[in-house]
Structure formats: C-alpha cells, structure tokens
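Input for the complex:
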Amino acid sequence: MASPLKCDLCTKPATVHLTQIVNNKVHKVDLCEACAQAKGVTDPSGFSLADLLLKASLTPEAAVAEGLRCEHCGFTQGDFKKHGRFGCAHCYDTFKGMIEPMLDNMHKGTTHTGKVPHKALDRKLLTDRLSKLEGNLDEAIKAERYEDAARYRDEIHQVKQTFGQKLTR
Amino acid sequence: MKSTRSNKLSDKNSRGKDMTLASLLSTPSELTDTASSKCAIVLMTRVRLARNLAGKSFPGWAKEKERTTIMEACREAVVATPQMKRSLSTTVDELSELEKQILVERHLISRELSGAKSGAGVIISKDQAFSVMINEEDHLRIQTLRAGFQLKKTWNAINDLDTALEDKLDYAFSPTLGYLTACPTNLGTGMRASAMMHLPALVISSQMEKVVRAVNQLGMVVRGLFGEGSDASGSIFQISNQTTLGESEEDIIKRLGSVLNSIVEHELNARDRLMENDAPKVFDKIGRAYGILQNSHLLSSGEAMNLLSLLRLGIDLGVFPDNSRCVIDRLFIEAQPGHIQHTTKHDLESSERDTLRAEKLRVEFAAFAKPTFAINGKN
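Predicted:
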C-alpha cells in the first residue's frame, strides 16, 4: 500500500485508512490497528460492511472489480454492497481484489490455519482424477489406441480401489 | 431406517403438534437440568460452525428450488450421524410462531432462522446439546451447547460431529481462506465460540462497561442473553470471539478461555468486595428478590430474570443450597414469554402473561429452600 502514514490518534503506523463523505465533504482518517479497534471501525456489527467496501472500492485494483459478475451465480459487486454477503463460494475468487483489503481489517490474519476437511478434499481429488481418467479412456478407445486404453483402465481400477478403502465406511 | 426413528417435532400424522413439542420440553436437557457448582459463573458454553456445500449458492442468494435440494442433502447427512440418533427434525414452515419462539428461547435456533424463507430447517438432538440449522445464513450452522465452562469439551464434541458430516457432504473450502461462508466475517474456521456468563457483582458495582471495553480490545465481543441486539437482563452476558480467520480453532479457544477466566476472576473479586464492604445490602437484595418471587402477582420477564439472577447469586454465596442452582437455570428459560404462553391454550395478552408468570414462580418458590444469611458461617 502507500507510504507509512501515522495514526491520527497516536504515533504508531496507520494500517486502517478510512474515508467518509459527510455533507459532500471528504473526511480522511488514518488509524493504527489498536485505535481502529477501539473506535469500533473493525467491529462488523457496529460498522457497516458496505462502508468498508466503499473504502475498498477506492483502491485502483478494486475499481476494476466494479463491473464484475460471478459467472457461477450471477452475483455482482452491487449485490454485495446491498446484502453484505456473497452469492456463492466462487464469489471469493471473482471478487478477490475487493475482498482481500477488507480481510486485513476484519480478521486476525488473512490465511486459514485451522481445521482442513481432509476427507472431503481427498474424495474430491479422487473423483476429479477418476472423471479425467474415464475421459481419457473414452478418447483412447475412440482413437483405437488400445495400449493407452489398457493403461487408463488399470489406473481407473487402482483409483477405485483407493476410493473404496479411504471413503466407504 | 433413521427417518422412521427420528421424532418429528410437528408430525401431525403421528402424535400431533403439541404432543411432540411437549415431549421436547419435558425431556431433561443439557441447559435446564445439569447445572452444578461448576456452573457458578459460566452458565453454558456454546460453539457453532458455519459450513457450506461446494458448488451451491449460499442460502440468501439461492432460488427456492436450490434451497430445497440443499436442505434435503444436508438433512439426510445430519440425521445419519450418531449424535443425531432419535433427533427432532423439522422445517421452519412446519413450525408455528410460538414453537419458533420457544426454540429461540432455548438457544436452539436463531432469530434469523425463525424468520427464514421456505426451505430452511433444524435438527435437534434428544438432549438438546446439538442443533444443526439448515439454510440460515449458511447452508449449515452446527451448534453444540454444554452447561458450565467447558470450551475444550464443547469444541471436541462439535469437531466430531463436523468430521462425521464431512463423510457425506462436500464443503466449500479454500486452502488459503478456509471454510467459505456467506459473510466474510465468518471466513476461515467459521467458528464462533461463546460463553454465557452470570456477572451480577460486576453489574451491581457498575464495572461492566469497563469490562466490555477491555474484552473488545482483546478481540472478543460481549452481547446480551439472546445475542446481537438483545439486552443483558438477569446480568447474563454472552462473550465470544470476533475473528475467525488467521488463527486455528484451538488457538481461538485458548484465547477466549483466558479472557473468560480473567472475567470470572473479576466477578469473584467484585463479589468479595461487595461482601466485605456492604454485606447487608447484598443480603437485602437477595432477601427481597426471594420475597417477591414468593408473593408477587404480576411479573414481567425482565423483572423475573433480574430476581432469578439475585437468587442465583444467593446460591453462589451460600444463602441457598447448591443443588437449587438448576432450578434457577430452568426458570431462566421457563419464565420467557414463549414458554409461559405455551402453558395455556388461549392467546395471552402481555399482562395476562405477567400474571401467569408470577403464579408459576409463586408455586416454584413456595417449595424452594429457605435462605440462611451468614457471612463466613456467622449470622
């Protein structure tokens, strides 16, 4: 981000930059994390998300996101301003540029370090692999590449076995 | 197999609505029947996880048809878990306004779910320790509730249920952002851990504002008994983590635990100071509360909560025996408007409810233990 601004309330470096427009006048406030929290700026219940978003949308990367629309669910940035919630999980990819600066203020960190749904992820990995191999097998048969087809068939067999061991209970 | 055993809350074909709701209310529950001296200040611990299915729109954005598909998939997975054996499973549409209110008063569903569009539902375990809301803000809101201060145990219990659900459901998950939720404030762990604390001495000595400020600075949130926007009647407060991303579940729980411990310590200090400086005033408050509960004929739910709170303080100070604590905790819930309305057939005006509440409490407190006012064993 920009040059190391100092907090308006103390002397620590400011990490929260707030721009408010009141009666057509622009007010800019720069705060350090501690003061921002004390003032309730980072409190999502006391501070509207739409306001945070408005602030984020002033940054150049986010301006590009203005016309974006999630291709999975049709959700737009305007919808987020209105609801404060996303349309589907893919929105996090679509609106990445807008959401990333928000997360820094909202949470303790920006990277997940907690529980991982290993079982579900393994299952997805295997199903993806399986459908890819089955596609390959079909293609190989159509093209009469029988050696390849036999190899794919064996691999499919192997994946299915792992699938059975890992995922059925 | 499972569905025939699961006891539907409002299955009109089998037993009729009231019968099944009555069975829920009369079954001993975690919150109303297990309070002990271990719950002196922390009444209960609660952990909830927000989860969503991969590839589906979030509930607030999904069309009705998709919501129904999501609900069926989630419901099937939830009732199949061992934790939900013989559970109650119902859609929001099947519930009357009163039934919804009762479930909110028992902390089993949220206000948001009770006002949800069609295609939303809830599954509640027999002991009411687990509840899973479907299509509230997220596809799944899994909740575990335990009486007393039991953060680790509660987390382990909900972690097991969540892992069991993972067997059947593909969660929306990103390696960097964690569990993907409708609102970015729940990203990451999707976990909100909270404790319900009874803090009468901090309230009496006007220290709550200071405590709230300090707790906020530590990244935790203080709310009233029924969550966001509710008041703190009965000196009961809910304290929970504010952030969900960038820290593991165990770390959040550890941090919350140490904040809670220090609040407990402050409350105990405030009680000691009150007793040292002004024991007659404290005893007077408790004695009057006891008198009103035994003799009043009109009681609003707010007043009842405050009187019950003073009696609970009395139990902690040894004025009443330890085993009466669970009576108070049960009454905290049974004195709520929905629970009072449920005791009678016809619709009550608020003043009629106050009469009925006073009557119920007179009966309860006629049979309550007699007080013994003594400072450290001396009269």
